[in-house]
Specification:
The complex is a heterodimer of chains A (294) and B (798). Chain A has 294 residues and is of the alpha+beta class. Chain A has helices at 97-105, 129-136, 145-159, 173-179, 184-197, 235-238, 264-267, and strands at residues 2-17, 20-27, 35-45, 50-55, 61-67, 71-84, 161-162, 181-182, 202-209, 227-233, 240-244, 249-250, 255-261, 270-271, 281-290. Chain A has two domains: 2-85 and 269-290, Immunoglobulin-like; 97-266, Roll (C8orf32 fold), CATH 3.10.620. Chain A is built from seven helices and 15 strands. In chain A, strand 7, helix 4 (173-179) and strand 8 form a beta-alpha-beta unit. The radius of gyration of chain A is 19 Å and the shape is globular. Chain A starts with a strand and ends with a strand. By secondary structure, chain B is of the alpha+beta class. Helices cover 43% and strands 14% of the residues of chain B. In chain B, a hairpin with a 2-residue loop joins strand 9 (272-277) and strand 10. In chain B, helix 4 packs across helix 11 (341-348), helix 14 runs antiparallel to helix 16 and helix 23 runs antiparallel to helix 24 (753-766). The longest helix of chain B is centred in the C-terminal third of the chain and has 33 residues, at 519-551.
Amino acid sequence: MLYDIRLSLRYDYGYPVAGGRHLLRVTPPTLPGIQTVTANSLSVSPEPGERRDATDFFGNASTALGFNKPHDDLELVMRARVKVERKTAAFDMSPDIEGLAGEVAAVRSLGAHSPHHFRSQTERLPHVPDIAAYAQASRSPGRSVRAIIEDLGRRIYSDFAYDPDATRVDTPITEAFALKRGVCQDFAHIMIAACHTLGIPAGYVSGFIRTIPPEGQERLEGADAMHAWVRAWCGREAGWVEFDPTNDMAASDDHIIVATGRDYRDVSPIIGVLQAGGRHKTDQSVDVKPVTEG
Amino acid sequence: MTTATLKASPRPGLARSYRPFPGVFDEMMAADGTVRPAWQPLMDALNGLKADEISRRFARADRYLSDAGVFYRLYNGGGATERQWPLSHLPLILDEAEWQAIAAGLVQRADLLEALCADIYGDNRMVAEGLLPPELIADNPEWLRPMVGHTPSGGHFLHFVGFELGRDRDGRWRVLGDRTQAPSGAGFALENRVAITRAFGDTHSAMNVHRLAGFFRDFREHLSGLRRSADEAIAIITPGPLNDTYFEHAYIARYLGFPLLEGEDLAVVDGKVNVRTVSGLKPLGVLWRRLDAAFTDPLEFRADSRIGTPGLAGALRDKQAAMVNALGSGILETRALLAFLPALAERLVGEDLKLPNIATWWCGQPAEANFVRERFDDLLIGSAFATGLPVEDGITKLGAAMTPTTRQAALRDLASNGKSTVGQEAIALSTMPVNLRSRLVPRPVVLRVYAARTADGWTIMPGGLARIAQTTDPAAIALQRGGRVADVWVTSPKPVDQVTLMSREGDEVVRTPQGLLPSRTADNLFWLGRYVERAEDTVRILRAYNSRLAERPDDRSGLLAMTAGYLKPLGTDPTRGIPVSLVDAIDDVQHTAARVRDRFSPDGWLALRDLSKAVGQFAPKIQPGDDAARAMTVILRKLTGFSGLVHENMVRFTGWRFLEIGRRLERAIQMARLIDTFADRDAPDGALDMLLEIGDSTITHRRRYSMTFRALSHIDLLALDPLNPRSILFQLAELKAQIELLPPRGETSARSPLRLEALRLHTSLAVREPAAVDRAVLDTLRSDLAGLSNLLTATYFR
């Protein structure tokens, strides 16, 4: 599937800020076996004094911006054309949990995609006994890791209500888990934490998803937002498997990856924007438009 | 002196009643009760002294420390208090031969740690080869992924490293832990040395004790060599005055002549690291950090850090500055690594460890976990990722010493999450003598030693910081739990080089640190000037008020009521002997001064502590009236003592100018308000006299205007007299002069808005007659001065 993607982030400070530095992770990378980026651009207004593109530890495209002049708003527009062609495994080649432990231990690497990065707690992923107990229900003797992942995702989808007003970007998972409500970020974090309690390496994926319009209706421009789902390491053979608990589905050709990491902190689209309240306003819009190849 | 004669006089004098613990190695006394040769000269010297002379000498060392303002911060409950530096007066003495073996072991270890760090932040061969478990790195909060794959500027990760050493039962030195993040204590070691030489100067020189200054000189040269050009600054970065070892940061900064900066003093611009100074951005080449890496850059590490510099990690990746030690080097402190260092030494430096570390078992491996479970009672059980010493983290416990609940929890942890647990052999530690109530008693000791990189490789400080437990329990070593410190003497059979960093060991270098005045420091000095003046004005008014209250408590004229009304908007209630607002004002002074501590002499700091203490003691008991008037005189004397010290001892450099500008600005504002109220036509009888008293101009006025007692003469003297150091015009002239001498900013510096405004304010008052200085003029002047303060802030502090 070929997409034209447009992401726009707008920050209205309401008063002039002297300067500032930001770190962005908004540009999708080419990922062999998943997606190919044929064109992309990132425009920033006002024009930053400094700009530097780099690749971070997990292989994500990052852009550092530096502003030296006072400005009272900031607008970022990322455009990319991405071809998504996922090679999906036909068979479940993942071991059971006991087998997985041995396969993890056999990995003697700390490369970006090594499962070792994705097993321990982070500030956003504390150990929550209630989540550990919740995860146990997805486990049964002999069940494959991939089957566990899918079951866990499906349960989160059905047990939790999608409610954008219930949580904020910094709501701890304990709270979202207790509420049984939230958005894609909360569901992804809870699912990752649950995987950790079962010994399954799991991480956070940020990206875009095409919203398929109901039949007979025009698709809504800009109705989509940045999305998040989960990837879990299902053993040497199966490798990383992505699952989207918000939509109860394995990542498909409708999922475009922007960044991967352990949790939201590793993939935040923008770090370093003033969070001050008052007149500060933010606005995000995403547009994922399928392109007819021809 | 031979061993035979030593044996002939066992345990003389002070040593006579000294009884080491059986089976524990003692530093001073061998198992047969003889004094070890390295200690003999000191013990002989002590024996030659009468008890009161010894006390006098110890007191001399303490006085030095207290005069030098050496202290540390003790945290308890919610707050922190400053405590006298807990120096134990007997040094730990080691002879050169033993020291050389330690030094050789530590040089090897420093090389090993450097190689390991390069691997952990490089291609992780040790993990690939199975010499390091991957989860020890991947789960480690000190492994900073943003720094992986980058070699630091200068090529090295480590430049300054500390090691914790202790002896086992057989007297062999063992490494207890490594300090690679931001090792503290080297400055305290220097201060200990200076203090102890005050007590035992004669013995110290007779014993050929190795000097410490050469070590710092070599390291300073090394830091200098890390710069890419000579115009780059070298600075020390600190978390700030609330850190428990901030005193030491300020001390080392002054000793080496480097500016002491905080995160907000730095700015990354065009990918380069700069210092924000009053003369604009200045390039920075080398940062010696006392700040944990996680706090250095909120964009890449802890987003909640308020003490970091956004963009710093990126600039370091681009090798735009050298960081001592590299961000991420804290991972080498991980306790579980001790389990793997013996094998890593063989692999990375091709040798066995010359100085073994304490045996450590990481329970992430089944065999090790089993071993620890079997020997649970004999081992120290703690966190695999801990970075502190087992004896001081307050959590690690000997299996046998655990309560049944703790023990159960620890065993459960071991079974379910072995990779976060280590077991370590509990070593006895040696003891050394401590003087307690005029008796020498043995106490466990841990030795911290420092290695610094130089052009010729690692150099080991010939000395260090001995930390002594308060009780016989080694866990009482932490300063936070009453531990003490001692100097460490390495003695030579031959006279030692008299190398010094400067003229005399321990003296501070007073150099202009590359002409660098950080904007934040200037801002603090400006406000310090304002706060001191504000406090002084308040004290003067309160003194005048209380002495009148003592004479005429009925206040028939209404003067006291008017004064109270004058003070009210300032938040001061004069009916209390020591108003709360005065205590707050003195606190403001002290807090602001604490933020620029590296700019003051210890005398200035002591004067301030003395002031604060006096006010604190007065506050609960002083009654309004005569009592308060006299207390105010005492406070005033102490306050002017502090200003006097600062003004007499601070070099007339840019920093002093900001202090002076703050003082003058505040005094002008206060005087304008005082005249407005007290010289008012409708003011009660006696107001003009009180104004003169507050303005310290009574005598001058009497002499000069003997026949006139009209308000105009008061206005002439206190507003317009160019020679009266309390008059408004005098302040404006001084403001104008100092502002002209500030470093130029921008292109139109000669006609900068700030200079023009200072000139305008001065001129507009200078041309006035006393009769023309009315309420409107004074009001305008006050708001213009507030505007001048804002202009100064915008020009220099932003």
